[in-house]
Structures are given as structure tokens and as C-alpha cells.
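Researcher: Quick one. two chains, 667 residues in total.
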Amino acid sequence: MASEDNKIDRRKLLADGVRVVGAMGLVGLGGFVAGREGRENDSVWQIDPDLCMACGNCETHCVLDVSAAKAVQFPLMCGYCDICTGYFPTKDYERNTGAENQLCPTGAVICRFIEEQSGTRFFEYTIKEELCIGCAKCVEGCALMNGSLYMQIRHDRCVDCNECSIAVACPTQAIRRVPADSPNLFKKEAQELLDLEGANDA
Amino acid sequence: MIRLLRTMLPLMLLLIAADVATAQTVIPIPRFITDYEILDVQLTQARDGRWEYLDLAAVFVGLVLASYFALVRRSRRGLFLLSIASIAWLGFWREGCVCPIGAIQNVALVMSDSSYAIPTVVVAMFVLPLVFTLFFGRTFCAAVCPLGAVQEVVAVRPVKVPAWLDQTLGLLAYVYLGLAVVMATTGESFLICRYDPFVALFRLGGSFNMLVFGGCFLVVGVFVGRPYCRYLCPYGAILGLLSKVSKWHVKIPPEECIQCRLCEDACPYGAIREPTVDQTATRRRHGRRRLAALIVLLPVLVGVGVGVGGLLKVPLSRFDFTVRLAERMRFEGRMEEEVQRRVQSTGLSGSKIWGEVLDEYGQEERTTDASADFRVSGQPIEELYRHAYDRTMHYGTLGRWLGGWVGLVIGVKLIYLAVRRRRRDYQPDRTGCVACGRCFWYCPGEHARQGWIAGPIAGQGDSRL
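Model:
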């Protein structure tokens, strides 16, 4: 009987040892991993518009029913065109705002007349975000001209999956994690324009 | 964006004639004469991270409560209500992200890639249940994990899975753990998240395949208790190991076991081990010899695993973007050669031949989005091939690690099964037990302790059941 008790004690001691080492190891690991450089920054998913080729996967591959990725207008790059290739299809259309004449399947691109200068008319194009489904048709169209329309993941909608489903399906690996305190990516040119404007303001 | 221009080449030629000065801004930005002000770009800010800390707090409170209900209060009802709360809060409200199961991959990635920034919450999410398990057993699985909870709720008609099948399928979880860790270190694929069966349910939406996958798990889960937890969950595999050395663990009878076997019937997860019978001397000798043989077998299994694992480089590299792209480019190259050959031999027009060749190769289009983008980018294809080759070789290394791990798991499992332990009473198997509380809830000794029935322990006869 005594030997049996000893055996149980030995097993218990072993378990105690493993547990203490395990607990210390886990806490140590946690501290080590959490304490490494740059760890204080959270990160979020974002589309690099310079890499995006407007394939349309954003619309269909997001885990949300209506994708968290939407088209965004960058007004500083917009040409305010009379015939916007992001608004009108490139053929077989009439130049009015009828649904059949719009590139956007949900009518989310809003066109508004601004002014006329010596026969040239300028229009403002904005995205009505609640209508946008992220199909990137306007982005593809606008790329023929200035490329001021581009895709971005909207952080008010993104549920921040551990692995972004759109990123898995993205044909150009344009989606990556970016720091949460600067969660938007601009085209290189757009960033230059922003910097210029910032310099002018200052 | 400039890459897209090639699709509209005729129009572009016109435009290039009009404005060559800037490559991208084709149309000059007008200077408005009215007082129109150019709008600001609409940006969104990242959600504040406080919700995640609240999740962490919820998990902590859940762990405390689950451990209390399972070990102190011994209340199956409490555990069940906690499960419902977990499904509601961590499942449907917070939509199942971020969870400790998936956090395995973030931790694996940060180990291999120091540039990856892992949020503190994720680390804490990963470590907290592990530490709790070291002290209280798998109380995380019992009622905190929403994936476990949703399966707990549907397990209404559990059948007994034969031991050999149960043990064999149980190995899958370790294989999946190895695979997920290995793939996470590449930073390309988080398989646990991609194939999470219930997140689509919690979000009430997702890809059709994942909804069907999750639905299957729920249907199977009615008859086989917690199929995901037992046979796939990689985090459960880790917790099971840690639970072996837990300081405290769910006890079935409060005092003396009367060997009624009700607990064995009540456990839907096949985690109750029956008392052992004494062995004869010959059987013991037999067992020892077998154990010795299995210990010798272990390094052999690991070696075989490493060897076979090297062959995994091709299937594993299918997950890699670069490798897929390189294979596609090579395939398109073959199609192009075929077309050229036929054009030369028949003299027909290229577009006609292309149609034929595409049909024969079962393709809709000449290029995919990815290959089209690669062609436009103008990168040299040799570089892509070289990169893809390096990646494939890297997957070979990962495959050997994975194979060795699988060999080790099988070997250790065999040894574990060959080692006999002495049990006098019915006891929960610490690895398989998820502390759901059914065993003690059905135990007559417990009923007596609670005073629901008259019993030798409680001694009083007021029956509340």
C-alpha cells in the first residue's frame, strides 16, 4: 500500500512540475510576444489602390452580405469630366441619368452639374456609400481616365476577420494589414497631391 | 490602375495624343470659376479597440464562471446557461472574432515573422484559456468557447463512437494543429479561420460552402457529441494536453462511487473511463513487450513522417499565391505554344485556333485576373519561376516538419494507449473531458449530496426531482 501511495505522489509531483513550468512558460511567451517592438499598434485590412485591378472580387468574397469594400472618390484627382467613364458605360448608352445608361448597377455614383466654362461643362461625381456594393465597375471605368475612383475597405463596416476573405481571393495581393491609426491607403499620386495641399495650407 | 488601360487601347491612343504630360492624370483638373469647393475625400477610421478588451474581459469572466460552475458549484444548469450566454455574446453579437482557436495562428506567425504586429488582445486571448486549463481542466470548452457551446446545445441524441474510431479521429485534431501552425508561419493562409465551421452561422451569412460545412457539423453534432471539438479543433488538442496536468478537474461522484455507470451513459463525448481489472502476469509481460516495441517504433514513425512529409510540398504549395501564379503562367505558355504550332501547320487565323485550344484545355479565357495583371506588370517570368521554386522548396521543409509531427503524434498516441493506468472508479478522461457537467449531473451520489434524493451520504429524504 505504501508503494502505491508513493507512486501517486510521484505522478502528482510530476503534474505539479509540468503545470508550474507550463504556466510560467505561457505567461513568459505571452509577455515576450506582446512586448516585442511595435506591438502597441493594432492593424486593420486595407486595399492598396495602386495594386488593385478592379476585378470585382471585393463585391463577392467579403464575409458580409454587402461587402465592406466600397468605391471612394478622391476629388483632388478627379477631372470633373462631362463624359465620365466611371459613370457612363463606354458604349451603347444615352447621355442621361437613366438607370440603363449608368455603369453603376445600383446608381451609387451621383453626378451633379457644377459649372460651364467656355463650352466645357464640369460635373461633380460622388459615391453614395449606402448604395455602393463594391463591384468596382466605376473604378475600372475611371481607370481609363484619371483613376480618382478607387476601392477602399470601409472600417465602419469591416468586421476585421483574422484572415480577410477578400485578401485570399484578391488576384493581385492588393489587400494587406495597415496600422489602425492610419487605416487608409492612397494612390501614390493622390498622396503627392495631399502632401502638396498640406504644404500649401501651411 | 494604369494596368487596366490596355483593355481600352484605341481610346487610350486618342487620349495620349491629348495629354502626354502626366501618365495617370489624363484629364487635367479644372480651375473652377464659380465658388465650388472641392470636396474632401471620405475616409473611415478604424473602430476603437475597446470592444476587443471587453471581449477579453468577457472571456475571463466566462472562464471564472465556468470553472466555478464545473468544480465548485457543480451545476450543469449554470454551465448550460453560460453556454447560451457565450453563443449570444461571443457568437452572434461579436460574430466570433477574434477567438483563441484562431489566435494560435497569430502566435505561430509572430514566432516566424518578427515584422508581424500581433495585437496584445490576441496574445491574451490565446494565453488566458491555456492558463485556466492548467488549473481547472477544459472549462473553456465547457461553456466559454462559442463553437463548443453551439455544439453542446445541439448534442441531444449522442451515440457512442467506437473507441478505435474515436481515438483515430482524435488524432486529426493534432494533424490539423500541425498543418495550421505550419501554414500560418508562411503568413499566407490562416486555415483555421478559413475553415471555421460556425463563424458563418454566427454572422448569419458567408460563403455557401462554409454555411453547408457548418450545417453538416451541426447535424452530425446531434448524434456525435461535439464533432469539431473532438476531431478537429486544434486549440482543443492543446487544451486536452494541458488538462492532463490540471491542478483540479471535474469529479464525478462527490464521495463514493457506487459503480452505477450512469455517468458513462450520460457522457456524449465518450470521455468516461471505466475501472480497470487486475492483470494476469502473462498479460502484463505481454504489455511490457508491446510498450518497448512501440517506444522503439516512435523514432521510426517520426523518420517515416519526415520522409513522407517532404512529398507534401506540392499540395501545400497550392495554398501559395506565387506558386499558383507561376503554374498558371506556365500553363498559359503551353497553350500559347500549342496555338503557335497549329497556326504554323494549318495557316488558320490565331483567334480561331485560340477558341479551339481554349475548348480543349477546358478554359474560358486566355488569362486569369492574376496572370493578366502579371503580364501587364512586365516583371520577368524567370524571376517568378525562381521565386515560385524557392517557395515550393520552403513548403517541402514545412511538409517535413508537419510529417515529423504527425509521426510523433501517432507514435505517442500508440504508447499512450499501451500504457496501463489503474482506475478503481469511473473517471473522466482528462484529455477528452470538456467539463460539460453531464456526468455528475446524472450521478446518484450527487443527487444525494444535493438532497434531491434520499441517500447514504445526505441522509435526508426530501426529493426535489
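The CA atoms of residues 61 and 166 of chain A lie 5 Å apart.
Researcher: Thanks, that's what I needed.
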